[in-house]
Amino acid sequence: xxxxxxxxxxxxxxxxxxxxxxxxxxxxxxxxxxxGLEFTIPINDIISSSNFxxxxxxxxxxxxxxxxxxxEDLQIKNFRIQLDIQTNRKKAREIESILRKTLKEFx
Length: 107
What we know:
Layout: E1 2-6, E2 10-12, E3 15-18, E4 23-26, E5 29-34, E6 37-42, H1 43-48, E7 52-54, H2 70-74, H3 89-106
Antiparallel strand pairs: 1-4, 1-7, 2-3, 5-6
């Protein structure tokens, strides 16, 4: 089961079906039933929509921090940064894009 945060109100045929800030948990699709309106939203539509953000459990993120001296901290040399996450390919590409843009600003 995956959990998603609703980033913006979701309105369908003038009816608000999901409120900003609420979370939904789904496997393959989300069943909507509002004011006589009933339908399903496939998980692929939720993943590809900018109205939703997947909530990643902290247990799925593994970060290792190593202390170094001030002298070592200022040395310029090659570094390798590796990030292991559990997500789908589309989100992994989005994360890669964000990291590349952010790193260009720092380097």
